[in-house]
Amino acid sequence: MPSRPALTRDLAEWLPRQRWFGGKDGPIDDLSIGTATQLRSGDPALHHLVLDVHQNGVTDHYQLLLGVRSDLPDRLRHVEIGGRTARRDVRLYDAAHDPDLTRVLLAELAAGSSSGPLRFHHAPGAAIRTDLASLPITAEQSNTSLLFGDVYICKLFRRLSRGVNLDLEVNLALSRRGCAHVPSVHGWIELEPGPDARAGGPDAGPVTLGLLSDYLHTGANGWSLAIASVRDWFAHTPRPGDGEWAELDASAAGGDFAAEAERLGAATAEVHRALADAFGVTVLPAAEVGAMAARMNAELTGTCRDVPGLAPHAKALTGAFLDLAARAEPLPVQRVHGDYHLGQVLRTEGGWTLLDFEGEPARPPAERRALAHPLRDVAGMLRSFEYAARFLIAKPGTKPPEPGGRPETRAHAWAARNRAAFCRGYAAAGGADPAAHSVLIRAFEFEKAVYEVRYEARNRPAWLPVPLTSLAHLTA
Ligand SMILES: Nc1ncnc2c1ncn2[C@@H]1O[C@H](COP(=O)(O)OP(=O)(O)O)[C@@H](O)[C@H]1O
Ligand SMILES: O=P(O)(O)O[C@H]1O[C@H](CO)[C@@H](O[C@H]2O[C@H](CO)[C@@H](O)[C@H](O)[C@H]2O)[C@H](O)[C@H]1O
């Protein structure tokens, strides 16, 4: 390994260019190496690092598998850290992209071994195959997931949080109850915290670093399916004589998504029921609902300060939060998905499967863990239909829709049709009827939109116009 000062300098330059880095809205003030564990010696060598990244008075922790080679093959050049300018006799790179090194993870998981502070666990009775090579997936994601053959998917969490990861806890609980809507978990990787952290209270348990689950290789991602449907609808040319209403009838295109949206609503209600059975339901008193609405508004104020493009919508958003506070009724709350959107669902031959129960990655662990009303997830998915509908017209660099017409009319028609179908499926399968809870749904939807504006500013600045354009229409 090169000297620590040289390494941290290179990392501070490399990190902001990574999709998974969540601090793109400000400079890195300092970067240090929290823990370093060698997992393989020789050439190539593998080191597990936790990077402590200091920004604006806050320290975030990121996980990196650091590969070290004397010579870098072409296939790894795109993940080099430091590059040719760094004067050193070894080459450094992100080893998540190197199947020669990631097979170490499978071997350790299969053995259930420990290495320094790292603990590798397999689920009871799981016999983990070690003969598979990995490939990183290309989906839009905040972490990094590796496919091992068409058997496993291993998610390596990038921004780490203290305590057991909710994704692991919820997946284990639902798989144990035989819930058909989640993939089975085969193993997980943890970091045993040092003595300082262990003394730090209830959140000071092991840090979840990775999760090995069944790879549902026949599954199609909900976002890709929805975007294909939106493209089809935008390309649809009404027949002569169809009249101006044709622009509003999103069912007319061949790639209609509404039947899938309805099934997804039903699967969502079933998972909410399973979560209530597994973790219970409690009631949030009316005063705390008022406090929740006040928190939503405070987040709005903070986000408007950081992202001025949100300010024109502030009045309408505040109105929705005030309506929630004025409702003055207690709210049943339970464990929910917490960051529900089309990228978190897979359509397999058996129906819809839900992924990634870790909550919103841009929020602190305590907030992710907070129980919520299930309609918060419904609102998340409704936002996702808005995103899918407006992605093609709002995100710079995407292909403008053909063959013309009024893009916003088309986007609105697609979103409205699929929102309604999803809500219908959810209510028919026993979930709370979104139509009967419009104040709640509107407040949750706007809360999510504020979160999205912050998430996009920090993670994917090029996407910011997507939530802002959708808000312009929802608040008009
Ligand atoms: N068990 C699985 N089987 C098949 N594909 C999966 C599985 N888990 C995740 N994926 C794919 O990986 C993508 C990202 O997974 P996700 O858990 O949402 O990661 P992140 O938290 O980093 O956003 C999903 O959108 C899905 O396409
Ligand atoms: O999937 P993650 O847990 O990483 O969630 C984060 O990233 C999502 C994007 O990858 C982000 O979702 C937003 O963009 C989606 C399209 O890419 C869209 O379907 C969602 O509706 C929208 O919120 C999510 O908010 C963030 O937490």
UniProtKB/TrEMBL annotation:
Its recorded reaction(s) are: D-maltose + ATP = alpha-maltose 1-phosphate + ADP + H(+)
Pathway terms, separated by semicolons? Glycan biosynthesis; glycogen biosynthesis
Could you confirm whether the keyword Kinase appears in this record? Answer: yes
The answer to whether keyword Nucleotide-binding applies is yes
Q: Which residues form the Aminoglycoside phosphotransferase domain?
A: 255-386
Question: Which GO biological process categories is it annotated with?
Answer: glycogen biosynthetic process
Family the UniProt entry places it in:
Belongs to the aminoglycoside phosphotransferase family.
Q: What does the subunit section of this Swiss-Prot or TrEMBL entry state? A: Monomer.
Record-given protein name: Maltokinase
